[in-house]
Each structure stands twice: as C-alpha cells, then as structure tokens.
Amino acid sequence: MEATRAQVLAHRAAVQGLHGGVALDDVEALALGFVDSPPKTGGVGIAVRTGPVDLDGLVRVLSLRGAPHLHRRADLPVLRRELRPRTPRQFAAWVGGFDPPDLGHLDLLIELLRREFPGDRATKGELSAAVSPLLPADWTPWCEPCGADHVVDGLFRLGTLLAGLELEHVGARLVFRKPTGPLPVVEDAGEPTLLRAYARLVGPFAKADAEKWLGAGPRAAWPQELRPVTVDGRGLLVSEDVGEAPPPPAALLLFHRDPYLLGPRWLVAPDAAVAKRVWRPVGSPGALVVHGEVVGDWRYSFSGRTVTFAVRGWSRIRGAARKALGEQAELLAAVWGASALEPNVVEWAQP
C-alpha cells in the first residue's frame, strides 16, 4: 500500500478531530492522553478539537513516560495494565540513569504511596519524603541535586499511577489528592490496546516511534493487524487504510507534544530547521501548523488580561490561515483565562 504525506496528514487531522466541533466524549485522541505540562496545555489541545469545554470529567495523572496527562477515568485501567513493567527491559526504562533495583519491591512502593499519604493533599516532594525511608536501599539511591536519598523519580511517578493517585488540575507544582476507594487491580498485559490506539490515531508510524511514545521499552506484542505502507518512498506501518479526508485545517496553534505531532517528525515537519526550533530538549515553543505542516513556532505571555502571541512568520501569513490563527488565539486565550476577568485581549508580536 502507498500513500502520500498529504493524504496522511489529512487522515490524521480528521481522525483526531482537528476540524473542531467534536463533543468531549467523542475526542478519540483522549485514548492517547493529552500531555498537561505546564498545566492547562493539555486542556488547550482538547479545546482545539471541542471548543471551550468543562474538563472536570477528566483526570490528571502521571502516566506515559511519567509525565502529567489528562485522561478519561475509564481509560486508567488500560494505562495501568499496559504501563506496568513486566520485563527487566521495560522496568529499566523507568529508572533513568540509575541501576534497576529489585522489581519485586514495586508492590511495596504502591502500598506505601497509599498507606503513608500525608493529609488530604501532598506535593511530590512531601509524598516522596514520606515513602523513601521505608523502601529498600536500592530503591532510594543518593540524589546529588536534592542532596538526599530518595526513591528514583521515574519509579515514584510510575508508582503513583499504579496506586491510583490523581493530581490537582491546576498549579505549577505537582500536588496529589489523597487516594479514595480500594487499590486499583492491575490485570495481566493482555491485548496491546494503547498501541492499537496509537496506530489508528497516529499511523503510519515506525515501531521506534511507538516505543518512544510508550516510554516503557520494547513491548511483548504488537497489534496483529499492522501492515506495511510506503509514504513518499519511506516504509512505515499502518493498521487501517489512509482513506480520503478533507484537507487539514488552515492553521493551528498546537503545543509540541500534541497527539497530532506524534510519530515520524518528517511527516509533519519536513523542514529540519523548523523542527529543530520546535522540538528542543528544554523549553520547546508551540508548533505553528499551517495546512497540516509545522512551518514555524510560537510563544505566549500574559500581562494582566492581555495575552500576547509571538508567532514566527506571522507577518507572512495571509488569507484563511491568518483568519484561522486569529480564531485559534482567541480560543487559547479563553481557555487560559477561564478563571480571570473577561475579556482576554489578544495581541501579536514578532519573536
């Protein structure tokens, strides 16, 4: 099977609901979760698809790669089942540069996170300090930046997901809520549900792309329905035909970890110089997407009730794309300013 890059981007935009007006319950990309760091950025990604909407029905947890994500509560059992490491290689992916400790003590960490939870709310530091002295030494190596022995950060983050801990939706710090109800039951690995969702919503893709997204090392099984596809001369994998779809929206303001931007980077950002500006090791800007392609970057700042967008190349954008960017900026300002006095005023600036 063959497909063009334009067909792939049109298909992806359509299946992910980027033409807008989608009901929250129908946002298929929620199967992948929306990265929510800094807070409210995940809500922006959802609002691009739905318009301003109440997100109280979603939960904020540390999930894929230990990062804060917005998820449907009904999807949490799948996340726990498929992210729980069951092989040494999967476990090693959570420990960073540290030597993997004894995997057998993961259940002890999960028990301690619930039993030793301090109060009704606890910061990441408070909760880590409560459980670290009760863990085996190989789980609490010396941390030079913190000047203390504490549980390996990646394992702590994984443990909170498996223990059923949820985060507050707002605030610069990670603040956990006291867990309620019984300890979640984590089933056997079973079918690769997350990979199936990734293949449908992001494909075509390469296996390395999916493994990087999972952040948990190689998986034991891949969806059986995967088959090869050639996109502009490059071999990838797909789970369903890339059918006809309307062209992508004229312009979008997305954060660099939006689900639309997953998978092979060259598909969405053919200009390597632009990709280098958008995807940085630290402090990545937003991705300016015009007719499906990442063509530039953007940042924002607040001054009172004014949101200023600095869009690289704003002065060169014309027609439908310029109108669409204005609408996107107003939407983002409304999402961020939901707790502020109205109205929010959008200004433009050159970076």
Describe the overall structure.
This protein is of the alpha+beta class. The protein folds into two domains: 23-177, no CATH class; 251-349, no CATH class. The protein is built from twelve helices and 15 strands. The protein has helices at 5-15, 41-50, 76-83, 88-92, 106-115, 124-131, 153-163, 193-202, 207-214, 265-268, 272-278, 319-336; strands at residues 2-3, 34-35, 58-62, 68-72, 121-123, 142-143, 148-149, 175-177, 227-231, 234-238, 251-254, 286-290, 293-303, 306-311, 345-349. The strands form five sheets. It has a five-stranded mixed β-sheet. A three-stranded mixed β-sheet has the order 1-9-10. Strand 9 and strand 10 form a beta hairpin. Helix 2 (41-50) crosses helix 12 (319-336) and helix 5 packs across helix 7. The protein is globular and about 60 Å long. The model is unreliable at 339-343 (pLDDT under 50).
Short account of what is shown:
This is Winged helix DNA-binding protein. With 351 residues, the protein is α+β, with helices and mostly antiparallel strands. It contains 12 helices and 15 strands.
Which structural traits does this protein have?
alpha+beta, 2 domains, 5-stranded mixed sheet, 3-stranded mixed sheet, 12 helices, globular, DNA-binding, Winged helix DNA-binding protein, AlkZ-like, DNA binding
Topology, pairings included?
Blueprint: E1 2-3, H1 5-15, E2 34-35, H2 41-50, E3 58-62, E4 68-72, H3 76-83, H4 88-92, H5 106-115, E5 121-123, H6 124-131, E6 142-143, E7 148-149, H7 153-163, E8 175-177, H8 193-202, H9 207-214, E9 227-231, E10 234-238, E11 251-254, H10 265-268, H11 272-278, E12 286-290, E13 293-303, E14 306-311, H12 319-336, E15 345-349
Parallel strand pairs: 1-9, 14-15
Antiparallel strand pairs: 2-4, 3-4, 5-8, 6-7, 9-10, 11-12, 12-13, 13-14
Helix pairs in contact: 2-12, 5-7
